[in-house]
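User: Batch of two.

Assistant: Item 1 of 2:
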Amino acid sequence: MWLTGLTAVILGVKLSQTIYSDEPCHAIEVSETVTESQSTIGSVSTFCRYVQNDNNTWTIIHRRFDGTLNFTRTWEDYRDGFGDLQGEYWLGLEKIHQLTQTGPHKLMVVLKDYDDVRMWALYDKFRVLSEVDQYELEVGQFSAGDAEDSLKEHNAMKFSTPDRDNDMWSGNCAELYESGWWFKNCHAVNLNGIYQDETEYDKMMWGKKSLKEAQMMIRVDESSQ
């Protein structure tokens, strides 16, 4: 089954080799023995993952799997990025903006809940606008996957952090949920929420599911070029 192979590669496989490149992720040549690579284009360093069943290499912009990294952060932190490319991290809004302004991108989100059920969602035309636009999220149609189509609720939302409130609620969603995200009133998805095994909306969530692992990955949509 395609999903089984896909999520196993993304969330479950130990690396046999990592390569380093000055090419963007989608241009790196891979083989069966190389599942991850690190790409540096100008000032932007990213971690790439080859998805064997999809036969594409994706740029990982967000990764959580054990709760060791604190995601209750300031606007500056979320703008510049934090964490370790080899572990949990948030790539940074400015870097994501720089990557996605080069042309149409797809977004793949891969999730695992506390029952160890794996899910995924694929979205078209993912883009993050500039800091002048408060890093507004643009996300297109849900095109594949067995996770709920929950991210659509956050389309056209500006990014908020506890110290910068850009949501549509009269209060401060980011302060309430102790995280930065594209909050609305407040959220259907929050992949930066508190890491804890409870089905409450202040946790790392997708729809109504509390999550144990999450990754956000992007790649150039060559079909739109």
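Item 2 of 2:
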Amino acid sequence: MSEKNHYVYILRCKDATYYTGYTTDVQRRLNAHENGKGAKYTRGRGPFTLVYEQKLDYKGDALKREREIKRMTRKEKEAIICKWRREKYEDKGTTELP
């Protein structure tokens, strides 16, 4: 039996709102959102920017984290997004964020 990775992600929609979701394949899920086959909330709100992604080992942990993020205020979400972006780009050896 193959082990799956579990991800929680945040998309920034074109109307500047955030959508938080769970998946085992971030790129496949992003494509589904872009093609209008994702969550009802995201339909008509694209294009999207992936602004946060967290890999977890267990589905239950990922779903718990998704609920935590969905309950956060916009300001709290933006704080974890900023932290993730800093860490992501520091790992690549650059200090410039896109």
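The longest strand covers residues 49-56.
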